[in-house]
Amino acid sequence: MNIILLDSIRSMQNVWAIFRNADWAWFWKIILTWFTPTPPRNEINKTALWAENTVIWEYHENPIEIVNKLKDDWYKIYSVELTEKSIDYRNFFWKKEDKICLIMWNEVSWVSNKLLDMSEKILMIPMMWKKNSLNVSVAAWIVMYAFT
């Protein structure tokens, strides 16, 4: 029952790569918000390899509203972001029976403070060299893999 929410991700290639990742990791639904591009987009089917046809997706303009609904449906909300409250995703343990919503960010403005406040946990991927972030589709894959 795992889902992933993409908060205002600009790049179509990243969105379609996350569709492909979600299909592989059995994340059954992707929620697209604000200005995240939505299917169908023939020009980038090559990136998703038509995963937009195998993973359920829906669009909601306001991520706050849909996260409130997910919480009402007993979803555990986890954001992936680097903050003072973040914990290393490798040290995070969850119950396999939990329904999970993973929130991924816009790489320019990051996850909103309101969504971070609504999250049960904020997960981070430790960086090994000089940069402090990964491409969003790569980060999504790493954390989805951990949940799988």
Q: Give the quaternary arrangement of the chains.
A: single chain
Q: Could you tell me the mean pLDDT? A: 86
Helix content: 25-40%
CATH class: Alpha Beta
* Shape field: globular
Taking strands numbered 1, 2, ... along the chain, how are they ordered across the largest sheet? 3-2-1-6-4-7-5
Note the total helix count: 5
Could you give the order of the helices and strands? EHEHEHEEEHEH
- Total beta-strand segments: 7
Considering the protein shown, what is the CATH homologous superfamily?
A: SPOUT methyltransferase, trefoil knot domain
- Give the low-pLDDT segments: none
Strand content: 15-25%
Distance between the termini: 11 Å
* Named CATH topology: Alpha/beta knot
Question: Your description of this structure?
Answer:
- This protein has 148 residues and is of the alpha/beta class.
- It has one domain (3-147): Alpha/beta knot (3-Layer(aba) Sandwich).
- It has a seven-stranded parallel β-sheet with strand order 3-2-1-6-4-7-5, with helices on both faces.
- The termini are close together.
- 38% of the residues are buried.
- The protein is 31% helix and 22% strand.
- The protein has helices spanning 12-25, 45-48, 63-72, 113-118, 136-147; strands at 3-7, 29-33, 56-60, 75-80, 87-88, 99-104, 121-124.
